[in-house]
Design goal:
Blueprint: H1 36-39, H2 75-87, H3 109-115, H4 118-121, H5 133-150, E1 154-156, H6 162-179, E2 188-192, H7 198-205, E3 209-213, H8 223-229, E4 236-242, H9 254-263, E5 267-271, E6 291-293, H10 296-299, E7 314-316, E8 328-331, E9 337-340, H11 361-397, E10 402-403, E11 413-416, H12 426-435, E12 442-443, E13 453-455, H13 463-482, H14 501-506, H15 517-522
Parallel strand pairs: 2-3, 2-4, 4-5, 5-6
Antiparallel strand pairs: 1-7, 6-7, 8-9, 10-11, 11-13, 12-13
Helix pairs in contact: 3-11, 5-11, 6-7, 11-13, 12-13
The structure holds pyridoxal-5'-phosphate.
The site of pyridoxal-5'-phosphate (PLP) has 14 residues, from α6.
Length: 523
């Protein structure tokens, strides 16, 4: 495929469905749209304001000398530009989003309504605490429910994403080891091969050394391999384990794993990103967990990605709680909610501060709204329906695709590429899903499964939506099994065709440069 100077494909796909090639580049009601810089020029402007009279510039020596070079657009041009781009986006409000390990589920509108209440939306983190007692109470109440649902005594509310929560938990572990006088010696962190990439990255970021543990044929931690890693234990800092794990399976030996790690003098970090599969049913605190982040944007339905920032509160055990980051909210005896901001007094052993303020207030409001609107029985049903839906997908597709492991799954169904004919790969199936109107599933992850396809339907999809998705994927899987070569050119109907993704990742073109007019003319 040939690329233009911006790294965008210029040649038509090798197999073209000529009936849908159009002069405008648009497809049906989906408009073709160029980059902002291609449709506007710095010479035009959408506004026409007179130079203000009698206003003295206060910019001193920092007055801009050259043009900014930004393309000027009229209001209708700007509106259409962004609307057209937005229609190229896939969104949870548009359709099922099968991305595994991401829990892309419906964000209830009630959450949004609550988050927009002026008492939550229009306050500032630097306001006097006496004027934001309601907001602090909300943080405290959400913390109470997170502790209740996890069976853990403390929660650090400030981390701003799952990976940030991992950092919080691992920094607390590092601080605890330093307090024990073992900060310099206990450096080894065990991480299963199936772990999310953020786990080993976090451990290394905190100065630990990652030691990989194997998965067994059932997709769980290989206990013999784990035990062999613990023969020497005086350098063990802990383990980072996801449960349910990234194969979409419950780690059945989790209690034994916790006991082994504790006996070795280490701490148990649990990646709680998949908490939606067990919320209301299992309390991580009962499993021997010392630290676990919760992705509010997954389990508790706050938007992620472009829809809003994430939030990764991290629950901590009694052993790690003293090292939690500041700030945190406490309730004084007279009922006043107070932020502990300094690493002194109640927070004298804290490892420090991770964020400027207290965390993602808007996400806190949404998550608490979600919890309260579901109630205890509703949250339990969230986990049950998430698991039911994933098993429905697995059951519907297991005759045409190859489940990676035997038996029931938890909240996501995992398939290998064993069913595909020679030459057809996971990526071809994923790309063909785009033509069917779906965002692809998670591909090639976890690494322990060949050509992995990880599908997480979540609990908010109806049977009708699941069937629609399964019908599409089933037909693609049959074509893949028959070696249908046209799959190699998919997607045919998307605005951008098969991209050179390796090149895009290795050599990203992040800056727009004006086309070389001389060279274009010569061609
Ligand atoms: C999503 C996820 C993370 C990271 O969470 P972010 O909020 O994206 O930083 C970590 N581990 C697992 C298993 C996940 O699914």
């Amino acid at each position: 495929m040939t690329m233009n100077t911006q790294g965008r494909p210029t040649a038509p796909a090798s197999v073209s469905i000529s009936a849908i090639d159009t002069v405008s580049g648009s497809r049906g009601l989906l408009q073709h749209e160029d980059l902002l810089f291609e449709i506007g020029t710095p010479e035009t402007t959408g506004v026409d304001l007179p130079k203000p009279k009698g206003v003295k510039s206060r910019l001193g020596g920092v007055v801009r000398k050259a043009e900014t070079g930004l393309a000027g657009l009229s209001e209708p041009q700007a509106v259409r530009h962004y609307i057209r781009l937005s229609q190229k986006n896939y969104a949870i409000d548009l359709g099922l989003f099968p991305l595994g390990s991401c829990t892309m589920k419906h964000n209830p509108r009630l959450n949004e309504k609550m988050a927009r209440l002026p008492g939550f939306a229009d306050i500032h983190p630097l306001q006097p605490q006496a004027t934001v007692q309601g907001a602090l109470e909300l943080i405290d109440e959400l913390a109470t429910w997170l502790k209740t649902l996890t069976g853990m005594p403390f929660v650090a509310m400030s981390p701003k994403a799952g990976a940030h929560g991992e950092l919080c938990g691992m920094l607390a572990i590092r601080q605890a080891l330093i307090a024990r006088g073992e900060g310099g010696t206990r450096k080894r962190v065990l991480v299963p091969e199936s772990a999310h990439g953020t786990n080993p990255a976090t451990a290394v970021q905190c100065g630990f050394i990652v030691d990989e543990i194997k998965a067994n044929a059932r997709g769980r931690v290989d206990m013999d391999d784990l035990k062999s890693k613990l023969v020497r234990s005086d350098d063990i800092a802990g383990i980072m384990l996801t449960n349910p794990n990234t194969c979409g399976l419950f780690e059945t030996d989790i209690k034994a794993i916790a006991d082994l790690i504790h006996a070795a003098g280490g701490y148990f970090y649990c990646d709680g990103a998949n908490f939606n599969a067990i919320v209301g049913r299992v309390r991580p605190g009962d499993l021997g967990v010392d630290a676990m982040h919760i992705n509010l944007h997954k389990t508790f339905s706050t938007p992620h990605g472009g829809g809003g920032p994430g939030s990764g509160p991290t629950v901590l055990s009694e052993a790690l709680a003293p090292y939690a980051p500041v700030p945190f909210v406490i309730r004084d005896e007279d009922g006043f909610y107070r932020l502990v901001e300094q690493t002194e007094g109640a927070a004298k052993d804290s490892f420090g501060r991770m964020v400027a303020f207290h965390g993602q207030m808007g996400m806190f409001v949404r998550a608490l709204t979600y919890m309260l609107s579901h109630g205890a029985d509703g949250l339990k049903q969230v986990a049950e329906d998430a698991v039911l839906n994933a098993n429905y997908v697995q059951a519907r597709l297991k005759h045409v695709m190859t489940p990676a492991f035997e038996g029931f799954c938890m909240h996501e169904a995992l398939f290998s590429d064993a069913f595909t004919a020679d030459g057809i790969e996971t990526i071809d199936i994923a790309k063909a899903l785009i033509d069917e109107g779906y965002h692809p599933m998670t591909m090639y992850f976890p690494l322990v499964v060949h050509g992995a396809m990880l599908i997480e339907p979540t609990e908010t999809e109806s049977k009708a939506e699941l069937d629609r998705f399964c019908d599409a994927l089933e037909s693609i899987a049959r074509r893949a099994a028959q070696g249908d070569e046209t799959l190699k050119g998919a997607p045919y109907l998307a605005p951008a065709k098969r991209l050179d993704e390796t090149r895009a990742a290795r050599k990203p073109v992040l800056k727009w440069t004006a086309p070389d007019t001389a060279r274009v003319a010569a061609e």
